[in-house]
Automatic annotation (TrEMBL):
Ranges of residues in domain DUF7722: 5-50, 58-103
Species classification: Eukaryota, Viridiplantae, Streptophyta, Embryophyta, Tracheophyta
Biological source species: Platanthera guangdongensis
PANTHER family per the UniProt record, alphabetical: GB|AAF04428.1, OS06G0523300 PROTEIN
Taxonomy, superkingdom: Eukaryota
Protein's name in the database: DUF7722 domain-containing protein
InterPro entries: DUF7722 (IPR056139)
Amino acid sequence: MPVNYPRYSRAEYESMPEWKLDFLLTEYGLPVGGSLEYKRNFAAGAFLWEVFKMPVNYPRYSRAEYESMPEWKLDFLLTEYGLPVGGSLEYKRNFAAGAFLWSPSG
C-alpha cells in the first residue's frame, strides 16, 4: 500500500480513464470490478475525505458471520462506513470481509 492517499479532485475522478482507475484501485488493494461509472464513484468515495464516514466502533464480525450476513445488514454496514453497496450478495460479503477483517483467516 502506498504511503500517501491520491490527491485527485472529484472532477478528476469523474473523467479518469478506466486503466488509471484500475491501476489506482489495485495499488491500494481495492476491488476493480464493475462499470466505469461505478469505478469512478468508488474511487471518489474511497479517497475523497468529504464523503468519508467513520462510526465510533469498528465492526467485530468473523469471516463466517460476513459469509452468512443478510443483504440488508451488509448494505447498512457498508453505507454506515461510506462504502459502496453495489454488486451481488456474494460480492458484498467478500467486500465487507476484506474491508473489516484484519487477517485473511478472519
